Amino acid sequence: MTVTIAVAGKGGTGKTTLSGLLVRYLIQHYPGKKVLAIDADPSSNLHLVLGLPLTQTIGDIREDARTGVAPGQSRQDWLNYTVRMAVEEGDDCDLLAMGRPEGQGCYCAANHMLRSIIDGINAGYDYVVMDNEAGMEHLSRRTTRDVDHLLLVSDASLRGMAAAESMLVLSKELEINVRNTYLVVNRVVGEMTPAIRAKVEAMGVPLLAAVPYDPLLVAYDGQGRPLVELPEDAAVSVAVAGIAEKLMGNGAEGRR
Asked: For the domain 3-255, what is the CATH superfamily, name and number?
């Protein structure tokens, strides 16, 4: 069965970096397994972390559904073909970008078809890593109905922790099955402050990792280099490998 890891956080917390490095770990440690990365953040920059092109998003397809269906072709067939063509195929993993969320005048019939098609695509992979924005739009719209591991990512600030707490409340209201929920505190300089530690304890969610600030990551970002090219002994790479090892040891392997 497919193992789904959803990563959520407000902008700037490093959740996309975490998602990309989790994808890299799965590729390296589970050769032969099929990995799908889903960029469910409207800013759509997971492809930059992975070093993959991005030519079309599901948001583009939703808009084109009004006029792009050829005469004599059903909307279902057109959507099925177009969505599957939108999957960017890489050498080691594939990428599907959701793009902008539903706008005014939501095309309910098209959205229902899209969710069914995407669920079908997900089922063809051993691992799915989904990079979500803070509002978890696509989780709340039930794009992915079952999540094995939900990682709530915050930076080492009380404002970031408050946002993570709001996401925790939202996750409990979603009509999806989330097996495990964890907190990841990212870009930690030195030790977490007593105030942050107290907030972690108050949230009542297991702290999966405190990921250290890594200046090498900043250097790669500044050079426009895909972050999956970071050395495996870089501080952030080591931390994310530790996160992945914990996830794979928490029952995920049994779902394959």
From this structure: P-loop containing nucleotide triphosphate hydrolases (3.40.50.300)
